[in-house]
Amino acid sequence: MRIQVEHDKKFILRTAGIFMHEGRVLLHRAEHEDLWALPGGGCEFFEDTKTALIRELEEEIEASIEVDQLVYVAENYFEWNGSKAHEIGFYFLARFSNASMRFYDLKEFKGIERKMDGMTTFKLIFQWFPIEVLDKMNLKPEFLKSQLTGCHRTFKHIVNRSAPFQNVSKTSNSSEKR
Fold first, then answer.
1. Predicted confidence (pLDDT) per residue in 56-103, tens digit
2. Which of 10, 4, 177 has the alpha carbon at shortest distance from 91?
3. What single string gives the DSSP state of each residue in 81-134?
4. CA-to-CA dists, residue 87 to 2, 67, 75, angstroms
5. Mean pLDDT value of segment 23-30
6. Peptide bond into 164 cis (omega under 30)
7. Mapping DSSP to helix (H, G, I), strand (E, B) and coil, where does residue 6 land?
8. Percent of the chain, pLDDT > 90?
9. What are the pLDDT digits (tens) for 100-154?
10. First and final CA of the chain: distance in angstroms?
11. CB atoms inside a 10 Å sphere around CB 177
12. Based on CB atoms within 10 Å of each CB, which residue in 45, 60, 64, 133 is the most buried?
């Protein structure tokens, strides 16, 4: 869910899956961009985050998945396409169901993203990466580089501030990553 609050400000509610297999993590990016992210997408109105994650992977790569434990809720502040963005991200451990096990054997595969208008589409690239190379990648949000290397099964609330938001005052006592 993306809501344009003002002409240069967006609020985003995102859900993502942490798919790990044999020391690798699954990432995706739009074919026309150079930044990688965990697979997932925006929630629709009145849709819970687990259901949204299942729907996104079905729509993008026709995969059947199991959504497990919620491990991170992250407040991400960043600039994107000329707008300041405030994103709330829900990050779940996830796995491919028996019907979609083939995705574990593919190094790279393609998907498709459909915009809210239902007409606009662009290609997605999905790829498995060894966990130890994440710190050298253009992976967003940044906190994933350190957190995925030791992806624990305990819940964390993370506040992730990219420039120019790094000096904004904080009131949270939760775990924070700058």
1. 999 999 999 999 999 999 999 998 778 898 999 999 999 999 999 999
2. 177
3. TTEEEEEEEEEEEEEE-GGGGGGGG-SEEEEEEE-TTSS-EEEEEEEEEEGGGG
4. 9, 21, 6
5. 96
6. yes
7. strand
8. 65
9. 999 999 999 999 987 766 666 889 999 999 999 999 999 999 999 989 887 666 7
10. 24
11. 16
12. 60
Show me where the domains of the chain are located.
Answer: 2-161
Q: Which residue has the tokens 């990648």?
A: 137
Using DSSP, state whether 48 is helix, strand or coil. Answer: coil
- This prediction has a pTM of 0.86
Q: Which CATH architecture has domain 2-161?
A: Alpha-Beta Complex (3.90)
Q: Looking at beta carbons, which pairs linking 161-165 to residues 24 or more positions away fall under 8 Å?
A: 161/77, 162/76, 162/77, 162/78, 162/79, 163/79, 164/79, 165/77, 165/78, 165/84
Do you find a cis peptide bond into 39, omega within 30 degrees of 0?
no
